[in-house]
Fold this protein.
Amino acid sequence: MSESKHRKEDEESRSIAFECDLPEPPDKVWRALTTPEFVSEWLLPTDLVPEAGEKFAFRDSPETEIECEVLSVEPQRSISFGWRDAEARRNRLNSTVTFEIAGTDRGGTHLRIVHEVRYEAQAVTAIATIPRVTATAANDNLMQLRLAA
Amino acid sequence: MESEIFRVLADPTRRAVFERLASGEMSVGALKKGFDISQPAISQHLAQLRKAGLVAERREGRNTFYAANPAALDPLLAWIDRYRNFWPDRIERLKTVLKEMDQ
């Protein structure tokens, strides 16, 4: 697992990434990652349509849904979709989930999942009013806590 | 805890109080000067900010000073932290689905 942060003047994001090797070949993994029946089984109940621009949802509780939209698809290689849960909607955050696969020389598949979150464009101004020094200190402290944990 | 931070900062006045305190430690009296609300109202907001761990209190004799606790603030990290255990758990389920597929 890795973690990264990116900071530019008016752009800020956080991401987490997970990687694993699977014994199944890429075409089978691709089907598990993009067929709604299979995705509903391992991720969350969904009506996913793996085509760019398609809107769909994951049901994450009896009452709430994660609102999604396919951002890009490269068949047999990667799929990326917007992921807005209730907390993200309340706080004007946008996140993106990307599944990337690649064949391994042993006939299996390397899977990488990246989940990145950023502020909605119109929310950036409000955040920018927080003194930069404080925000930086907050990051450093949290990173240190995480390392110590 | 993370959602508590979100909830507390969702209030514009409370957020403004927090941002003011981020510039340096101050007493309620000093803090009140920047706002058009009563001292009890400010104290209410401070109590909520303290409860969420966003603001720390320091007593010096009869005076109490408040300061923002910068470590508590990183909504993006707080949000994504909720998925730190989610994805590894789902990957385990994916492995099971893959084993049972096409059988």
